[in-house]
Amino acid sequence: MFSLQHCFTATTSPFSLLGAIRTATKRAGGTVHNHGGSAGKRLGLKKFSDQYVIPGNIIVRQRGTVFHAGPHVKMGRDHTLYATAPGYLRFYREKWLRGERKFVGVVLQRGEVLPRDEQARGRSRYCGLVDHNNLAASSPVSQAL
């Protein structure tokens, strides 16, 4: 049956009336999603309109084609745009299918406008035959030195 000693030990235990109480074995903390991520990739414009560039200068680092390559600009395999000829940078928009596209191009003179009116002004004749010495004498980089 029911013994007196069993009743006595049951009432002296602090957990007898409440049942079992769990205590924390670790400190409370939130969860981390994706464990901190990775460093930023420093995307965006590196050169701006009317700024002097030389061949190889990176103009835009981008994911996808936000900007497209215009005259004397090429696109790398990660969609980076870079200059292929010395000159001044120009940003412009052109009608493309049903919308517009943003382009980046390089021109010889600072005030020149893109897209170039080839019927009135003729072609921009870089073709690898630009006199770099003469162009360097009029560039802002050589004037600063």
TrEMBL record:
Q: Which domain of life is it from?
A: Eukaryota
Q: Which GO terms describe its biological process?
A: translation
- This protein's record includes keyword Ribosomal protein: yes
**GO CC annotation terms, alphabetical:** mitochondrial large ribosomal subunit
What is the recorded name of this protein?
Large ribosomal subunit protein bL27m
The protein's matches in SUPFAM superfamilies, at most eight in alphabetical order, are given as: Ribosomal L27 protein-like
According to its UniProt record, which protein family does this protein belong to?
Belongs to the bacterial ribosomal protein bL27 family.
**A GO molecular function held by the record:** structural constituent of ribosome
**InterPro entries in UniProt:** Ribosomal_bL27, Ribosomal_bL27_CS
